Amino acid sequence: MKKQLILFILCACLPHVSFSQTPQSSSPTAASGLEGSWIIDLRPTPESEPYLQELTIRFTDATRFSGSFYDSAFANGETNSQ
Question: 19: which strand partners?
């Protein structure tokens, strides 16, 4: 249920989301540029007050990752380049 809620929030807010990253470590994966702590602004419109949440991503191998978002841990995330 948490994964579905996180996915819904990310998809629903994506047109209005801005990202800033503080990299924590390097990784040999193709998507390693995603690894680290991200501050995500989930405001519903650009005119709204900022609504910031932290997203943390850690790669466990070349395509799988785990982390946390909205104070909830997640695991078994998977990247796909297609």
Answer: 40
Which DSSP category does 46 fall into?
T
Strand partners, 65: 59, 77
pLDDT digits (tens, 9 = 90+) for 6-24: 655 655 555 555 555 454 4
- Cα separation, 73 vs 3, in Å, equals 9
Find tokens 């997203």 and name the residue. Answer: 55
Q: Which residues contact 18 (CB under 8 A, 6 or more apart)?
A: 40, 41
CA distance 29 to 13: 27
Instruction: Write the pLDDT tens digit of every residue in 60-82.
Output: 888 899 999 988 999 999 888 77
Query: Which helix (H) or strand (E) is 39 found in, with range?
Result: strand 36-41
Single-letter code of the amino acid located at 31:
A
Give the rounded distance of the alpha carbon of 66 from its chain centre: 10
